[in-house]
Amino acid sequence: MTQPAVIRRDPPALSLLRTALELAAAGLPVLPLREGKVPFGNCPACTGQPPACGGRPNMKTPGPCQCPSPCHAWAAATATPSVITSPAWASAWRKAVTVAYHPGGAGLTVVDLDDAAAVEWARETLPATRTVATTRGEHWIYQGAMRSVNAVRDGVDIKSTMAYARWLGPGIGTMTALPDIVRALAVKEPSTVRSAPQAIAVPAPAGEGACPHRTPTYLDRGIAMAEQRITEATSAIHATVYRTFLAVLATHGRCGCLAEAHVARLFTAAQAKGESPRHCTDAWTNARTTLGL
User: Fold this and answer.
1) What distance in Å separates the CA atoms of residue 42 and residue 39, rounded to the nearest whole number?
2) Which terminal residue of the chain, N or C, has fewer Cβ atoms less than 10 Å from its own Cβ?
3) pTM exceeding 0.85
4) Is 59:75 a contact under the CB 8 Å cutoff?
5) 30-34 and 38-39 strand pairing
6) Are 243 and 152 contacting, i.e. CB atoms less than 8 angstroms apart?
């Protein structure tokens, strides 16, 4: 009589370790996450003031942690197999619930979309790239690193340098280069004004490249979404206006699509929220300067 096949299942720690080693072999610096999907606490030597490794206890150390155990959150991430399999990491793997990676350490940026509304915004606004499904939304992964910023808009975080992202699988689609529109989301409005007051009718940049948008529908939808973002802002109006202008220019500022009528719509929305014509002009000019337009 044929005996039934025995299905062997790896212990959770071994499965996580195998995943971590596969990711490290692909060039992704990895680290274990404990219950709650958060990093392990700092080692005893790093809980003092200052920590023994020279980092900071708030887990914002500026470089890779040199401690033997997973320490200082994202700074513990490594692609070195001997560290990942070391006795100092063994205890963490036994208690871990998942694997995370440091996107910036691999030259990547993750746009973390936390809900359906954020995903819809990304599909309407951002260039297509590799996507990974999450519990409530999606990760959009781009080739290129930048600084990490939380809450760049409702339901949207940027995870790259000095941050970690959970590994949820390889995803689908072809990874594309990090676009200006994503970089623009992380840019704060300059604290100093560099332009003189001008009238509300600001000439749009005259781009020289071929228009990639095919039809005016894409532009009109983008302007409408920008107006809505400004209109629905309930705080940080100055910053919202500037970042919205920056996002519009990052997408449409180089191909010559924008007309004065489009700019006027944005200025009108901003002034309805209490912005002065001068601030609108300054924010628009500063956004153009930031993008080199």
Assistant:
1) 9
2) N
3) no
4) yes
5) antiparallel
6) yes
Planar angle of CA 9, 12, 18, nearest 5 degrees: 85
d(CA 60, CA 43): 15
Specify the DSSP class assigned to residue 70.
Answer: S
**Token match 């990491």: residue?**
89
pLDDT in tens, 158-205: 999 889 999 999 999 999 999 988 988 887 654 444 443 343 444 444
Alpha carbon distance 92, 42 (integer Å)? 12
DSSP tag of 105: G
Q: Are 281 and 198 in contact (CB under 8 A)?
A: yes
Residue 177, classed as helix, strand or coil, is strand
How far is residue 232's CA from residue 240's CA, in Å, rounded to a whole number?
Answer: 10
Which H helix or E strand runs over 91? helix 87-95
Q: Indicate if the pLDDT at residue 151 is higher than 90.
A: no
Decide: 46 and 71 in contact? Cβ < 8 Å.
yes
The residues, any chain, with a CB within 8 Å of residue 41's CB and separated by 6 or more, are 47
Q: Residue 101 in contact with residue 30, Cβ under 8 Å?
A: yes
Alpha carbon distance 94, 101 (integer Å): 18
Euclidean distance between CA atoms 288 and 236, whole angstroms: 20
